[in-house]
Known about the structure:
mainly alpha; 6 helices; flat
Amino acid sequence: MKLLQKVKRFSLSTVIIGFILGIAFIAFPDKCIQYISIMIGASFIATGIVAIIGCLIEKISGFSLASGILFCIVGIIICARYRQILSFIVIIIGLFIISAGIINLLAGVKFVATTLIFGWITMILSVAVIIFGLIAILNSGELTESLVQLIGAGLIVYSVLDLIAFFEIRSIVKNVKNAVKSNDVITEGEYIDE
């Protein structure tokens, strides 16, 4: 259960950072072209710090600590070499958006079985995210304002998808806990009757 809590916390931090970056990319594409690498590096560092703080506060396993340190190191490297790796950063963002879209697409297929509406919404938005990611990768050599805005839209849709998935998974876990709890009560009652 602790691992699930760590993953949920990490997922929420990426949702928030992805949403903020998405809004910034859409609202200020010209500035973001200059500072996109620094913003991505800073978001990696922020995500890493959240993971490290979570690990230190709760004294949990090394998963949060290792991922937090890795994110901080990658963020520092990106900030230090931001001009040289601009197109590479766009490819990384595109790959991140595509992988998130594929994961959410698979989750959407499973969600259709439990909640029809959220399942279809998740699947449709996942396909859109995958398309955004592919466009970003294919045009990474020529970073324009419209491409930055498209990446921003992809990050916002990714954040919405992960938020939907977060609440869906939380609901499923709660239902499983309640089912197990009610099953334990029935089993104990049966033993008492005997």
